[in-house]
Design a protein that fits this description.
alpha/beta, six-stranded mixed β-sheet, 34% helix, binds zinc ion, DNA (cytosine-5-)-methyltransferase
Amino acid sequence: MKKPIPSDVWGDQAERSLALRLQREALPEGGARGRAAAAAVPRRPREGGRGGDTAADLPREAFARALASRGARLVQPQVFLELFSGHGGLSRALRERGFAVLEWDICRGPAWDLSARRAQKLVRGWLLAGQVWGVFMGTPCQTWTRARDTGPLRELGQAGPQLPSRLRSDQHLMGLPEVTHPADVQAIRIGNVLAGFCCSIFELMHLLQRPVALENPARSRLWLLPRLKKAAAWSTSHFVYTDMCQWGTPWKKPTRILGDRVSLHSVARECHGKLCSRTAKKHTSIHGLAQGGGFKTKAAQQYPPALCKALARCLDHAHGSSKTIALTSLFV
Ligand SMILES: [Zn+2]
C-alpha cells in the first residue's frame, strides 16, 4: 500500500521527483543528458504558438520544465529574502551592497507569522515566480535548544517558567510525550511548523538553483531533522561553524550555518581554548535569566555587525555566481 507522504513543496512524491528529474535533464552535462538539456530549453515562441510546450504536456509538467530551464530567459529575480530577520543586521549589510531586501519577521505584525499557511503560501509563491534570488533563515531555536534539557517539565496550571521548560530530546525530536502544559504543547507545535517550513524553503531554493542558508546554534536539535541531514549531503551544500565571540560579542555562542549554492567558508571562525582566543578573557554566559527579566539567550540572538557584513559578502558573491550558472544553459 502506498504510504502517504506529507505535502510541503510539491504536493506529493511523484510530483517532486518529476521536478527533480526535469531539473537534472536541463543541466548542461553533454551526451544524452546534453541532448535532453537542449530539448528542455524552451524553443523560441512561434507567432501565436505556445513556445516549448507540447500538446501532451500537463500544466504541472510544463511548469516544472519552465522552472528548470529558466536560465534560457534572461529574467533576473529582484529581491533577497531574510526570514526571521530580527534586527535585520544582515538585510542592512546586503542593502549597503545595493540589493533590494525584504526583512521578514513576526515583530512586524500578525501578517508576518510564518506558522500561518497564508504567509507560507505567499513566500513560496514569490520563490516559484522567480522574484527571489536568495534566502537566509535564522530559524527560531527556542524550542530546539539543548539548554532546556536541565529545565523542569511544567505542570498544568503552573504560571510562566522561571527557567525554560524541557520540550524535546534526541529520542523525541518532535516533542516529549510527557509535555502537557498547553503553552509548552503550543510552543512545540509552532516550533515544528516553522522547522518544516524552513526545510521546505531550503529544498525549494535548491530546486530553483538559488543561494539559500539556514542558521541555528551549533548544538541545536534542529540539525537532527532528517530533511536537513539530507540537505547537508547535497553536493552543492556545506556546513560552517562559527563562534560569535570571533565577531565581537563577549559570549561564545557556537553557531552552525548550512548553505546551498553559497560559499560560507570565509565566515568559519572557531574559538579554541578556555579563554577567548580573540580577547584572552572569559566568555560571558548566555544561559539563565537576564537581570532585566527574560532569558539571556534573547539578547544574544542579534548577529554581530561584522558577521552580517561577512555573510553579505558571501551572498553577494553567490549572487554573481548564480547569474553565471543561469547563463550557461544558453550555450548547450
Ligand atoms: Zn571566544
